Amino acid sequence: MESSQIYWNPFLEALPREHLESLQLKKFRRIFKWAYDHSKFHRRLYDEAGITPEDIRNFEDIRHVPKVEKSMMRDIQLKDPFPYGDALCVPLEEVTEFRQTSGTTGQPVYQPDTWQDWEWWAEAWSYILYAQGYRKTDRVFIPFGYNIFVAFWAGHYACEKIGSEVVPGGVLNTEARILKMQELRATAFMATPTYVLGMADTAKRKLGIDPAKDLHVQRITCAGEPGASIPTTKRRMEEAWGAKVYDHIGATEIGAWSYECLEQPGGLHVNEALFLVEIEDIETGEIITEPERPGKMVITAFDRIAQPCVRFDSKDVIQWAKDPCDCGRTFRLIKGGVIGRADDITKVKGVLLAPTAIEEVVRGIPELGNDYEVIVSKRGDVDEITLKIEILEEARSRKDEVLAKLKDQLRLKTNLGYKIEVHPYGSLPRYEVKANRFKDMRKKGH
After folding, report:
1. Is residue 228 part of a domain?
2. What is this structure's pTM?
3. CA separation for the pair 295, 293 (Å, rounded)
């Protein structure tokens, strides 16, 4: 297949690195000046640091620009211009879209967008979907409740931009969504990994439908959770649906900044034409440029104007991949997607634990259900990890064997011991959007 047939933007996606980096520097300088000139919040932040637009001459200078954290955005909300506060860079009457973060990490952050910003959202998503094979011939079912959380709103608009047919399934329940997908022979859909697995389970157990045999889905795009970049979870989804599963990462306050392509290279491309991604050592703050060294992502969206995203501390832990992708894109890869959040990667009994490692183990044991919960607590001065699981009905007779395998794999992959609780199948919480499976009760607020 020619490059023009696999790239949404053949010029930018295959731009030589030196030209791409020159473009990034130019676009960073432009958005930094825009924020400096139009946002009271950013102007105050940069003046306090003693940095002006004229000071940005190279990438080293960018590293001296102060980072913005989500807590800062929360602090300026509900003030004039209401409700966004003084990070707003355009007159209030130019705001055409309201979205807010999901609130899984605290008080939601409000995100205003102009129509230009919303067109940019759709363009960013068009890179994603086109790279994953979406075309005018696709009928795309979108099974999420359309509301104030951005979720797959921009994915919907990108499908229209590409020319795919969109079937919005927002108000339908899970069973009705599956039946509508079957009726219309939908070829693709978008959901969180949790809901992708949940839909397959509902189809089989409540409707007697095998998605891999009885439906027509060819591709699934995931977001909201790291599961589609975790090999065992991706395999479960692909086997359940008989379809290819692709990951993407975005955020309300950032945009859709990365995507997996048809090559499924074990990582995601950063859309470096629209974003600047820096990886920062969690302990020292040093910018990491070498591959396979995890750090915290700091990101800039080049083209978002209503409420700019300039050196935003995302808390997402990522690492550069060692090798380029065989697809020919010059956009760099992050290996394994988002490894976790700096907030969630925690020490338990002196050992660093990433929740994704537990997911990889649980989803790698076929006798276990898709749903589970992890609770970290303290008994006296000792950390304790409780893992709640469900065993499939057909495997209950082999419970001891399954539990022994689970404990061995957990010890091997995480170097920790767990208190295992087996719950009746279907009793643990089910989620349609983002799952909240990892609860650290040692932290404030729990």
Report:
1. yes
2. 0.89
3. 7
